[in-house]
## 1
Amino acid sequence: MGLTYQTMEWLGTGLRLLDQRALPANLRYLEATTIDVLVDAINTLAVRGAPALGAIGAYGVVIAMDQGAQEGWDSERLEKEIDRVRDARPTAVNLAWGVDRVRPLMAQGRDAVLDEAHAVVREDEVANRAMGVRGADWLLARLGDRKLRLLTHCNTGTLATTGWGTALGVIRELAARDRIEVVYVDETRPLLQGARLTAWELFQDGIAHLVQSDGAATSTIMRGLVDAALIGADRVVANGDTANKIGSVGVALACADAGIPFLVVAPESSVDLDTAHGDDIQIEMRNGDEILNFAGQRTAPLESEGFNPAFDVTPARLVTAFVCESAVLEVSNGQTPGMKWGRES
């Protein structure tokens, strides 16, 4: 199950990014050597996924330093441009985390910042593999050592990370053990990250899957066709509430009713202990035109306006377990991130 594509690569003067807007039809890349290009790539979802954005944030500081040196920015302008990267997507905590991790090193020079950005990538790759093993072990221990029928929402694979994946990393680990019967892939409206990206990754790996509409997910679960659901997270707060792609909370509600596990798989960099409850998470609102149009064609009356939250919040009571690189926390049994790291309010 060798990967033949990379989400990002540092070229020495900037980032080479796999342009996820073009998938699955075209495998193309773009180069981000300026802050304008990088921020546009983040905002238009050419690059996306919480762990990937953590690395993007770290490398973005290097790109800002390089551009500032070339164009003669003063310190105020440099900090403003770095903030543009940090704040490009407010719900995903990893983007700000990546910037904040390397920013204190700027006084030591560009090389120190770049070395730390490379460290973010290395650590993410190790964390991905660890989460895959922990999540697979947990599921097989509770559901039996057998082939599983799983459901996933949005994209949580290599395309959302620096390599391997979070929730999709667990699925890949199970596939490597020959413990996958089928994966139900929610299409993930309005930008189809499930149909375009997750299905493409599963096809590349030869993992059996079925793409379904988001509206079918609840029925699929409640008909007994799914053994467990796995999602990623853009932010996990101290009490275990989780922000993820819009539609995730509906999957969690169906799993709770059906009595099957609902797992959140995310690195510790996605944990925000400074936020106590999910009600305090800022939800990114995207352009309503993403809802009102499809493939360039208007699908609603011209007079209609769109309501387009990018994320929703799943309450901790609906999360069976949170899988990170160092542990599996059984949230439904009271094990929350805040308790593990001693910061719960």
## 2
Amino acid sequence: MPMKYYIVTYGCQMNVHESEKIAAICEKMGYTLADKREDADLIVFNTCAIREGAEERVFGNVGALKKMKKQKPSHIIAVCGCSTQKESTAQYIYRTFPFVDIVIGTFNIPNFEHYINAVKSGRQLEIFKEGDIDETVPYKRTSGENAWVNIMQGCNNFCTYCIVPYVRGREKSRQEENILNEIRAVVAEGKYKKITLLGQNVNSYGKDLTPAVPFSKLLKDICAIEGDFKIWFMTSHPKDLTDDVIEVIANEDKILKDIHLPAQSGNNRILNLMNRRYTREKYLSIIDKIREKMPNARITSDFIVGFPTETEEEFQDTMSLVDKVKFDSIFAFMYSPREGTVASKMDGQVPEEVKNRRVNELLALEKKIQQQEGKR
């Protein structure tokens, strides 16, 4: 009887896509997908480091497998992803859950087969360090008519609240031809109607390549591929959403007029503390350009409330920004300190009850706007 695997994925679309890579590696090794965790010989937790709550859920679910591992020691338990890219978290898992067999970070996922074989043969695990993007590992695509295509990894922005640059590393873009070849192959299969380009900051794609490849060029070249498909991308940083990118989105029929543009705050002092590198005025000018070129574009955003030292007046600047732009949808989060980030060490942490009130006020405003504007 073939061995079975089961993957539990936390976090963003990038993690979902990397779980597709893990699934392909497992099936290459002869594993088949289990219907539920209890039936699996190999259990993988692909983790997220963005918020503390996500890590706590991982720890709880890993701890629940202690009894199963004791009853059947041949079970292999692996924890990987963003959380375990942090050395402190990896060491915590080793200390707290000694029955876990494999603890690796995001950079080591392409070598997952090596780690499974090492566990099976009783060899000591050799942890590989960060390297170039691996173009050899296939994906078992699991998102219906949507195909995720990773165009870059890492981030150079170092927003003061964000752990991503520390766990994903600096920006590394894939060679354009490799991306185009992957998309040509996806389109040739005929079952994917939507292709979503992924990266921690997709519109800074290509700056690290020699010669540099503008994101607008990549979008044009993808649109030139024959076939019936639509393109979407996430996530954009306002400082990198340039006029030429807006122009390409507006002019290319294959690109969805659906732009997710995280603002995070509507106050300039808070934006500066966040190291976002744009102002409220700059953000609104970008929105104006989008609306000028694409009056019917769907625009969504992210906001963080209760950032350290945020005053009530500064929070109201965020409220007024949302009221002015009238987004089609927003995601609002209470600021959560992440160990290792600049903001976690800042004075003036906002009380939980204040953050909770503010996030509810912001979401109530969004609901009111949607009712008034007839947005969905």
## 3
Amino acid sequence: MSSLQNKITAGDAVVTVVGMGYVGLPLALNFAKAGLQTFGLDIDVNKVETLNKGESYIEHIETGRIAAVVDGGNFSATTDFACVAKSDAIVICVPTPLSKYHEPDLSYVVSTVESIVPHLKAGQLVSLESTTYPGTTDEELLPRIEAQGLKVGEDCFLVFSPEREDPGNPDFTNTTIPKVIGGTTPACLVEGEALYNLVCDQVVPVSSTRAAEFTKLLENIYRSVNIGLVNEMKIVAEAMNVDIWEVIQAAATKPFGFTPFYPGPGLGGHCIPIDPFYLTWKAKEYNIHTRFIELAGEINESMPQHVVHRVSDKLNEQSKAVRGSKVLVMGLAYKSNVDDVRESASFKLMDLLADSGAEVDYFDPHVDEVPPTREHARWTGRKSIEWNQQNVSSYDCVLIATSHDKYNLDELVEWSDTIVDTRNLLGTRETKAGQVLKA
């Protein structure tokens, strides 16, 4: 057993998790809870200060969970990369967005690695968790580490272990979700397994970092393609005056050969709208055109426009135009019951409506104020409206974009005469004739 494994087993290892977001923070808390001295490294001073006070800035991560490890002395947050030199394992959980040309943007990964390598020393393990194209670990991390004079697999260890977070899902956590991991060498894999076995119920080893990188992409491409399919079926069903939600419910009764996916106003979150394009970009290096993935992406990206057309249709029924109408978007978060607005389709809906001349507001019980975003800066600082009859009834149309359990749907149906429902929230609820349009 190596000295690193001995430290991990004995609970003496020190871990630095880089990136205190939806992936890195819960992982760091798990290491700290397991008894390891853990540093939460982030360039955001506000996040660091909040964490060191034992407080949370992510809704589904309870303050008490942070306070327990801070007060216990196992966790502290910092902006100083010097903590890497004190660590036995460094786990990188930083964003991997797309450029405006749908090309991978590895700037966060590269800048993080370049900030880490001056502090690296023999015996350490580096793990990348950020979703990326196959080959990133070998092509971007490995040469930068070895440029420091450290031989990966002998002097230090390098693995890729993709995150599988599902924020707000009460049934699965990053402890109970099986953890896929691939090593640059067999020795790297052994060290990585030892680390993650400490905080994960099941670790799933694969043959290489490329296999692990590809695994994460396949998972999300599978979802993207199936969502694209059902979104296209929704459009066909609408044209045929068929309720796609009824069709899906009926098809789901088949006990084999069918998995239900549901249509929506567009994709959101950091994974499904982005990850497929990492593979399509890399595939071009091998002269492969990933038509299936790109077609699904085109369909999914077109859904906000389709929904806005449906809003226009509904307003036209009342002899109103989008221009000059007041529209309330219900739900800013990209998925149910969370405060995560990354890549949310709601921003695209709000942009399209506003560009068409509508007066747009939003209501979200999980998002009080729009945080800064790179692509939708026009909404930064906008606050969720107060939910009351006077406010809600003043809108010409209410557009349900996200399904939250905290909505009072009885009041919505009572207070609004015109509702466009993209989530079938009102599908089984008694409503007035012509009040609701599914989109």
